[in-house]
Structures are given as structure tokens and as C-alpha cells.
Amino acid sequence: MTDSFSLPTRFGTSGFGGCYAPETLMQPLLDLEAAFRSALADAAFQAELKAELRHFVGRPTPLTAAPRLAEALGLKDLYLKREDLAHTGAHKINNALAQALLARRMGKTEIIAETGAGQHGVATAAACARLGLSCTVYMGVTDMARQAPNVARMRLFGTRVEPVEAGQGTLKEAVNEALRAWAGRCDQAHYILGSALGPHPFPTLVRTFQTVIGEEARAQMLEQAGALPEVVLACAGGGSNGLGLLVPFLGDPLRRLAVEAGGHGRGLGEHAARLDGGRTGVLHGTKTLLLQDVHGHTAETASISAGLDYPALGPELAALALDGRVEVRRASDDEALAGARLLCEREGILPALESSHALAVLPALAAEGVTTVLLGLSGRGDKDLSTYQSRLEI
Amino acid sequence: MNPLLPFLMAGDPSLEALPAQLSEARSLGIEALELGLPHSDPIADGPVLQAAAHRAIGRGATPVRVLEALAGITDSPDLILFTYLNPLLQIGADRLKALLAPTAVKALLVVDLPFGEEPAFEADLRAAGYPMVPLLAPTTTLDRARQLLSERPDPGPTAPFAQRFAYVVARLGVTGTGQGTDLAPVQERVAHLRDISSRPLAVGFGLSDAASLAAVRALGATPVIGSALVRELAAGKGLTTTLAPLK
């Protein structure tokens, strides 16, 4: 039994992060940090994780040059880091698989998870099927409707999908319910949080398991392009994909950009852009930039993308943004759709709606004179086909 | 020993009803009462208190309005404000102290504020007379309990129950009645806690009937009645009708 955290629990000059958890979850969180540190120091765990990432997930994922899209946008070079080609179709599997291995190492037999777009749920379901762990995923009813293929995939993998009807029926409510479920089962279950949010040690744990994206991409850029790009760019919901790609580039002289969901308007409730719309607050165990009303109640959000509508930016990404180390921009629903269409037409790749938000800022970057960009293509768009069909009238 | 610690959700059924509810509780001899500040994301609450919070928010029970509604009410038990951290952070320590000054609030129970996370905020409020109630969960080790009870110390026997007691969470999970909470483990924990502390203990989560309340009293601890009470009140039963047989 550990009685205090060893790793830093706070990020940047803002001091975001922390562990604002109910007392019932404190010892499980302390134990989780201890298990995480011990696993990181264990060569056998690292070797097993590496082997699973290679043979089950399909890592390293490719770095694909996108010359026809670059030409259309007026960029010289554009490279796509292809997390859409990872098993289960998004970057989420990197963290889900690593945490499932960690859970098994801790002797846990049950997994609880939340999911928004369903990509983390599918990844967790796949990892649990592979490792023989029982799995329950909490998912908002709105998200279940708009990401129906992912619900079916989770069920095929033997996972129980629990519908969450409260509130807007999206990721925030799913996290509420997963935290409640974990409080009831924390003696036997591990909670696999899917993004770089929640109480310590989750933000650090998730970021650590996702930086494989940026580490690979950095080496691939040097090998394939012979140089680093001017801009590294990723979409950001909670921040697992954003941090995963951007953190390994923090020491490099280049611009790092994260793109939030601009939704369909600038008013509170019409978007999920936390940097200029949010204020410091505490939600789901962490202090960060939060979309909230004057009473400190969490605000509603809107985005065409189920994976980007979380009302809080992960604490580490928010801290990096406030410290000027990551630039944060927003892309609207319509801009994301246009970005997706262009990638489809010019490169034959169907991006997830989340990743399309990163694509959406490319025209602005080109207009600013940027010539080379590395873009994190966080996931594939098959799950979003019905949205693309109706919104792009195809 | 204080025989009963009831919980009410402020603003359910309405803020206008609050003074009469508190007066009625006092006339029943209730010494202290937990008053829930409705929150949008009550992650430690089960369905009954979630629904009560959302009803109250829907009827305009914002944190500041709740505190303003409490101003000047003296015909009330001592109040323990049961809340989540974010609404308090948004109000800010100085304004919060000013809002609390004319109320019967004697202590704060902030579900998602472990000791040490907001030390300045917590110390400021304690100095102003609003200590944080220590929570002891089934997962809290005895070492951690010792640390927790010293970080949130007993102000001593002259202080009211509301400022002295530690809250023992009876079982894993969230607030709510559940199905027949097994009190044997909590009995053991209460015994261990008695070895390290002489302060009053309240036991809550999952208590719903006279038998479970009596079992807690037999341990020398104060039973908390929350979800079961809120559910009865929502069904239209009166406070006196519900509480009298449980006292």
C-alpha cells in the first residue's frame, strides 16, 4: 500500500491537473500509480507491450506523404501519421492495450471504460477480448445512436455496453457513470480511462502510453523527409491524441498545434473550444480549462464529432497551451467536413470526423506561409459514414 | 450521541420550501443536517440524489441562490454543506465566506476534495469557521485515516457535532440505498477508527430502514439518512412522517 503519489500530479505554471477524487477512489489511484511506475521499470512488461503493439496493433503505423492534398492546399510537403491504420481504427488502442496489460499485472479481472465516439470503447473491448478480461463500457445514448457501428463492434468483442441516458448522453455523462461504477467495483475492477484527463495518475498514464505516436512520427520524418516539419498538428478532445503526437516534439524548434471542435457557433453550448471559451475549473477529478456556466455547472457542448465534444481540455494540454508551448485553434463542423472531403478526393483516405478537424486548419496554415506539416490522422472514418452521407449529400 | 444525521437536497422541491423544511427538522430535535448543493455532475451520487440535484437545478437552485436563501435563517439545525468543489471554486473563498456568514452552515463536506489538493482554500475556510468534514471510505487504510484525521482535525468537545464528526462511508460505490448494505465490515472499521480517534463518527451510504439505523447507533455512531429520505420526500411524504419512525 502506498500512501502518497511519487510522480508530479500538476502541469505547467497553471498547476493544472491534481487528484480531485472522492475518498473511495484515492487508494485505488495511489495503487494504480505504484503499479504504473513498477510496470514502466519492468523490462518484461515493456517487452510484452512492445510485442503486442507490433503484432496485435500493427505498429509502427506508417507515415504517409500526401502530395496531391498538399498541392491542392498550396503546401510543399504534408505527411500523415496514420493512426487510422492501427488495429480497431484509431490511436485509442495504444493506451487501451497498455492499460489492459497493466490491469492484468495488478491482478484485476474486470475492466470498466467510458467511450464517446466509441473508438476507445472498441479498443478496450478488443484488448479485453485478447487478454481474457471482462469488460463493461459506458456510453451516452446520443453517442450510441451516432456511432452505432462501434456499439456493434464492442458487443461482438464480448463487451457489455451500458447506455447512459443522463444529460446530453455524450462523453461527459459516460465518464460520470464510469467513475460511479468504478467506485463500486474498485476492489476488483480497473478503470481504463481513454483520454488524458481525470484524476492523477490518469493524465500522465494515458499520455505516456500515447507518446509512441510522436516518437515514431519524429523518427519517420527524419528518415523519410530528412528533416522535421515546420508544424506538427493534431486534433484534441481530452488530449490523448494531441499529447501523443505533440509531446515528443516539445524540444524541437517548430510549431505545435492542437485543434478543438468549433461546433456550429461561438456561444456557450455551441462548440467544444475550451481554450478561449473555458475557465479554470474542476471536472472528473482534474483542474483544467472547463466550459462551464457562471454557477460552476458544466456547460453543454456541441460538435459534429463525438470524440471532440468533451467540455474540458486535458490538464497537461491546457497547461502547455497556457504556457505557449502548444497553439490551440478551433475548426467548425463545416470546416471539418470540407477537410475530410478533400482528403478523400485527393488521397483516397477516409478520416474520422475527429481527425478532420486537424485537416480543417491546413488552408489557414498554407495561407500563413507554412510549407511543411506533419498531421496526426488519429482515426479512420468508417464509423462516421452516415454523418458524411447526410452532411455531404453523397 | 447524535441519533440521526439527515440529508436534504437544497431546492428540492423548491428554495421557498427550505426555511420550513429546516424549521421542521429542528422541531424534530435534529441537531445537524447535511444540505446538498445541487451540482451538474455529481459523480459520487446514485440515481436518487442525481435526480434530486437535476430537479433543483431545473428550478433555479444555483449555488449562490441556495446560500442567499439560507441567509438569516436561525430556526435550523446546524448545516453541513454537502457539495462538489467546482461551484465553490467559482464563487471563490472570499465571496463564499461572506455568503456563509449569515447562514447556519457550520462545516463543508466537499466530496471531490481530498486533503492537500487545495490547501490555501481549505485553510482559509477553516480559519473562518468552516472546516471540511473528513471522509473515511472502505478503501481508506488506517494509516491514511490517521493522516486524514490530523489534516482535518477535531476542533474539540466544545465545538458542535457538525464541525467534529468524521464521515464513515459504509460501503463501496455511490450514495443510494442499494440492496441491504452488509454492516459487518463497517462495524470492524468503526472499531479500528475508535482506536485512533475519539471524535464522533457518522456512518452513511446505503442505510434506508430503522434496522440499519439502529445497527449503526449500536456502534455508537450517528447514522446518515440521505437517498431514502430524499426519495420519500419526492414521493410527497412529509419530513416528520418520514423521520419520526427513524429517530
What does this entry look like structurally?
The complex is a heterodimer of chains A (394) and B (247). Chain A has 394 residues and is an alpha/beta fold. Chain A contains 17 helices and 14 strands. Chain A is globular and about 55 Å long. Chain A starts with 9 loop residues before the first strand and ends with a helix. The model of chain A has no long low-confidence stretch (mean pLDDT 96). The two termini of chain B are 12 Å apart. An eight-stranded parallel beta sheet of chain B has the order 4-3-2-1-8-7-6-5. Chain B has a single domain (5-246), classed as TIM Barrel (Alpha-Beta Barrel), CATH 3.20.20.70. In chain B, strand 6 (166-169), helix 9 and strand 7 form a beta-alpha-beta unit. With 247 residues, chain B is α/β, with parallel strands linked by helices. Chain B has helices at residues 18-27, 47-58, 63-70, 85-91, 93-100, 119-127, 142-151, 161-164, 184-196, 210-218, 227-234, 239-243; strands at residues 5-9, 32-36, 78-83, 105-110, 135-136, 166-169, 201-204, 222-225.
Helix content of chain A: 40-55%
Integer average pLDDT of chain A? 96
Number of helices of chain A: 17
Total DSSP E strands of chain A = 14
CATH class of the largest domain in chain A: Alpha Beta
Strand order of the largest sheet of chain A: 3-4-14-9-10-13
User: Nearest-angstrom radius of gyration of chain A?
Assistant: 19 Å
Corresponding CATH architecture of chain B = Alpha-Beta Barrel
* Major interchain interface with per-chain residue totals: A-B, 38 and 41 residues
Q: Tell me the fraction of residues in β-strands of chain B, as a range.
A: 5-15%
Describe the main β-sheet of chain A briefly.
6 strands, mixed
CATH topology of chain B: TIM Barrel
Based on the coordinates given, report the CATH architecture of the largest domain in chain A: 3-Layer(aba) Sandwich
Shape of chain A: globular
Radius of gyration of chain B: 17 Å
